[in-house]
Automatic annotation (TrEMBL):
Keywords: Amino-acid biosynthesis, Cytoplasm, Methyltransferase, One-carbon metabolism, Pyridoxal phosphate, Transferase
Gene Ontology annotations of biological process type: glycine biosynthetic process from serine; methylation; tetrahydrofolate interconversion
Pathway(s) it belongs to: Amino-acid biosynthesis; glycine biosynthesis; glycine from L-serine: step 1/1; One-carbon metabolism; tetrahydrofolate interconversion
Protein name: Serine hydroxymethyltransferase
Cofactor: pyridoxal 5'-phosphate
Length: 420
């Protein structure tokens, strides 16, 4: 049963702007403040989520939301864009400096929009693309029949080694030689290790394919120097700006200068209309934050926390995929505890610990996927991670009275580390 939390009487100082909403529209204020309270009252362990800073939220809630700005800085279809042009130039400059890229497009509305634009720039309908299969952790945009990608391109899926759960590069090379794809995609929603981008580059080169890195998940770790970067190896890097990167919900694309014009035209006007200038300003704020030594410390702590949590889950009896993690995310099969992923997610949610289910490579049923980005932003460290692992074991191993007890402890823990 999911946890719902009533709106708090007091609004945190960092979110003072919500006072206006409470006075003007109590109905929506109840939802927004209730959600704010839920986020602060539970453990947010969804691997793709985080808490943005008050400065990011301020840019998102600013009058830049009023501005129409089709086109690019200095070449807009609307008047009055001088100041939002400045915001976009700052975002681009900060992104290229942060990731060491020649060119950045900061307009994609989401990670999926970024991938759509990358395909639009490099491929023709019907082309063959080699990407991680959805059953192994590929994203919907990596060839799902329910997504534009699976409808418009011919995807050849690769998986992971059945024993180790790791990418099998020999197998990927064999598939590339057999199918001669126009593009190879690396990146996943649930692979807890780093892809070897140099090896992917060699595979793509051998068959004359583009290499597209979909780094939506690790982009914040890359920014903080806690994960290897695909930028020197991939033709195009797609990413989200939320997740570990801790920016607003949105996407971006990095590429070499030889592809800059194709990427820009694929975003606007081919797949998108007006840029969302409030979000672009918020992306700039997040890139600025991510360039600090403090953020680098955060990114390394995210990984250290995930390792402690993975070890703790193994000690509690979970079968942790690949035996651990190098990133912010962990996938695990709770079957040894006598429950499947869906049941586990429900019981953990009732105890105030919120996470996702995920496909299990070669497993029966579904596993759980969780990450440490949000709890690390709250300031939690290894001691809290070790305790959370024990609380997982207790919540899944016992009856409803104990769930109630775990819920109380989770609430106390979360309240000791307020996100705002
Ligand atoms: C690898 C990967 N690609 C693309 C996306 C899509 O991002 P969005 O949900 O912003 O469209 C995600 C989101 O989780 C992802 O993990």
């Amino acid at each position: 049963m999911p946890v719902s939390t009533p709106a708090p009487a007091r609004i945190p100082d960092a979110l003072a702007g919500l006072d206006v909403l409470r006075r003007q529209d109590p109905e929506i204020a109840e939802v927004v403040l209730g959600e704010t309270a839920r986020q602060a009252d539970c453990l947010q362990l969804i691997a793709a989520e985080n808490f943005t800073s008050p400065a990011v939220l301020a840019a998102l809630g600013s009058p830049l939301a009023n501005k129409y700005a089709e086109g690019y800085p200095g070449a807009r279809h609307h008047g009055g864009c001088e100041l939002v042009d400045a915001a976009e130039r700052i975002a681009i400059d900060r992104a290229t400096a942060l990731f060491g890229a020649d060119h950045a497009n900061v307009q994609p509305h989401s990670g999926s929009s970024a991938v759509l634009a990358a395909y639009a720039a490099l491929l023709r309908p019907g082309d063959t693309v080699l990407a991680m299969g959805l059953a192994f952790g590929g994203h919907l945009t990596h060839g799902s029949p329910a997504n534009f990608s699976g409808r418009w391109f011919t995807f050849v899926p690769y998986g992971v080694d059945a024993e180790s759960g790791l990418l099998d590069y020999e197998h990927i090379l064999r598939l590339a030689r057999e199918h001669r794809p126009k593009a190879v995609v690396c990146g996943s929603i649930s692979y807890p290790r780093h892809p070897d981008y140099a090896v992917f580059r060699e595979i793509a080169d051998e068959v004359g394919a583009y290499l597209i890195a979909d780094a939506a998940h690790p982009m914040g770790l890359i920014a903080g120097g806690a994960a290897p970067s695909p930028v020197p190896h991939a033709d195009v890097v797609c990413a989200t700006t939320h997740k570990v990167l801790r920016g607003p919900r949105g996407g971006m694309i990095l590429c070499g200068s030889h592809l800059a014009e194709r990427i820009d035209r694929a975003v606007f006007p081919f797949t998108q209309g007006g840029a969302q200038m409030h979000t672009i300003a918020a992306k700039a704020v997040a890139f600025g934050e991510a360039a600090t030594a403090r953020f680098a410390g955060y990114a390394h702590q995210v990984v250290a926390n995930a390792r402690v949590l993975a070890e703790g889950l193994e000690a509690e009896g979970f079968a942790v995929t690949t035996g651990g993690t190098d990133t912010h995310l962990i996938t695990a099969d709770p079957a040894p505890l006598g429950v499947d992923g869906r049941t586990a997610r429900g019981r953990l949610a009732a105890a105030g610990m919120v996470l996702d289910t995920c496909a299990l490579p070669y497993g029966d049923g579904r596993g759980i996927r969780l990450g440490t980005a949000a709890v690390t932003t709250q300031g939690m460290g290894p001691a809290e991670m070790a305790r959370i692992a024990v609380l997982f074991g207790t919540a899944l191993g016992t009856g409803s009275d104990d769930i109630h007890r775990v819920r109380e402890e989770v609430r106390d823990l979360a309240r000791r580390f307020p996100p705002y």
